[in-house]
Amino acid sequence: MTDTKPKLAVHKFSSCDGCQLALLNLGEPLLLLPQLVDIVHFAEAGPSDPVAQADIALVEGSVSTPEDIERIRQVREHSGLLISIGACATAGGLQALANFTDRDTWMAAVYEQPGHIESLQHSNPISHYVKVDFEIHGCPVNSRQVVAALRDLLSGVKPRPERQSVCMECKRKGLVCTMVSKGEPCMGPVTVAGCGALCPSMGRGCYSCYGPLEQINDRSLAERFNQLGLDRAAVARRFHFIANHAPAFKQAGERLKETTNE
Amino acid sequence: MNSQIHPSVERRPGFLPRSSLQTLFTVLLQTGYKIYGPQVRDGAIQFVYMDDPESLPMGVTNEQQPGHYRLTSGESRRLFDWNHGPQALKPLCFAPREVLWLEGAAPFAFKRTLPEVTQTAVIGVRACDLAALAILDQHFELEMRPDPHYRQRRDSLLLIGVDCAQSASTCFCASTGDGPALDGGYDIGMAELDEGFLIWHQSDKGQAITDQLELRAATDDQLEAMLQATTRAAGQQKRHLPGSEELQQLYKRLEHSHWDQVAERCLACGNCTAVCPTCFCYQVEHEMALSGESAEMVRSWDSCFSPTHSDMGHFQVRNNIKYRYRQWMTHKLAGWQVQQRRIGCTGCGRCIAWCPVGIDLTEEVTAVLEEGSLDV
């Protein structure tokens, strides 16, 4: 059995490493993982062979440099199934906020010699460059979801994406709606579950680390945020935040910005 | 419609002075019950385990509006002048998430997991929630072929109801015939007066407690005050649902343009169904351990607003918000009349208050029934 174990690689692109840490924080399942798969590349944990052939590649981070483009194409070529994990890999990440601004001006303001910086004009999700077989959302990802996806793949079935709202998780936990009881704007109603309603459990509104549901009613939520005291620019920033380049949030924020400029 | 002002269950209450409420708690605890009661938590009335009547929400009232819930504190010594928080009995009986059974691969075996329960006295339950519990009982077939998990939880409860002496602006139980006075489904009934409580039993389980309370005889004035309180509470209600027969017309309004208008506002977040005391939909998912050697079958609350709810293989029956809202309303108010012989709404108004964008069921149903033309 041991010599037929599937090979697993964990690749990192532009990111904070938080999703890899979510893997390292697995606890007991982490000890079990090497019995089930052959970890051929996971630099954060030890094994480093970025060009190794793998049956399953987990990819963290966004593509933000010319070198990243070459590397993700190589990963794609060397991998059976490619799974992007986390907000950077699936929706561009916080670094993609720069896509909405004049990057060169910012660069000149931050770096004395911006000419040394070799980065793309845009930070993009992995799926912008190569075919992605499955996406796991979150900032960081929930390790439970990663384990479930790996288990499904090892069993030869397609992983199931999370499709319910944060509100559902929130109510199952018996949490009190922050928007209704405190008037605090909360992205829960347009955000896909997975975090366990972490911010609402601390009495805060959701920041949508896990990105949009498959259908969102951004106009209605934006109007409600207006009534609760956020101006349109502030509402736009709620959509253009952690999952800013998820198409539904990108468009929602852009629509709000357009009406702000009118 | 307003049948609940004069309850059909006969009451023979005795009087317990306010200063003696501790006696009720002591008797319950000595009889072996844990007490589950209302407290102010995170800005809302929430039911939690407690053992001291001093921690009941004294002087607390609730302001409820569409998409809005706030508590206020006053000088009053009354303990039950609020109506409700987001939840009451539903999570106690129908767990938000629970493991139904365990599976093992070697040896291949299934093992049922029943919840561990403790005898629990729930104090402060309202008429709308008791009516809703009767509907849940029916759904989980408590009489005929009970869901074992539901039954285990349900059987552990001693229900102590309280008449509502005032209504929140979102309440409309008088129009559904479910409140504001208690009308069955409880073990012990209470009505709060300024000077104390009228208390009576409705079941043997309840009588075992009330017999130990040394209640005084209730005066005619106290009995009159009890009736007046619920009459006043019913009179405060401005919202109402149309009658059952009229609601059956909903199925003739499936193409009404108003559904589109609701869909423009509805977030399909599922909050209304989660706080609804009668919404019983659940999903069952197989959660396998990473080893592949064991698995859990997990049931958790679902919602007809979730995209997964109407998945049929690769086909989604209700693929937009309009269809989901329409499904929820027509099923609850019309479909249930066929399935459960009554509408699935008991007028608690939670779906109105806890909707993040304040969609008002009573307004929407009226608009659908009154405006536009009937489908052919």
TrEMBL record, chain A:
EC id: 1.12.1.2
SUPFAM superfamilies: HydA/Nqo6-like
Gene3D superfamilies tied to this protein: NADH:ubiquinone oxidoreductase-like, 20kDa subunit
GO molecular function: 3 iron, 4 sulfur cluster binding; DNA binding; hydrogen dehydrogenase activity
Enzyme class: oxidoreductase
InterPro entries: Hydrogenase_assoc-protein (IPR051349), NADH_UbQ_OxRdtase-like_20kDa (IPR006137), NiFe_Hase_small_N_sf (IPR037024)
Cofactor(s) named in the record: [3Fe-4S] cluster
Pfam family, one: Oxidored_q6
Keywords associated with the record: 3Fe-4S, Homeobox, Iron, Iron-sulfur, Metal-binding, Oxidoreductase
Domain NADH:ubiquinone oxidoreductase-like 20kDa subunit: 16-152
Stretches assigned to coiled coil: none
Name of this chain's protein: NAD-reducing hydrogenase HoxS subunit delta
UniProt organism field: Candidatus Thiodiazotropha endolucinida
Encoding gene (name): hoxY
UniProtKB/TrEMBL annotation, chain B:
InterPro entries with a match to the protein in the record: 4Fe4S_Fe-S-bd, 4Fe4S_Fe_S_CS, Helical_ferredxn
Membrane-crossing residue ranges in chain numbering: none
Entry keyword annotation includes Iron: yes
Keyword set, alphabetical order: Iron, Iron-sulfur, Metal-binding
Signal peptide: none
GO MF term set: iron-sulfur cluster binding; metal ion binding
Protein name: Anaerobic sulfite reductase subunit A
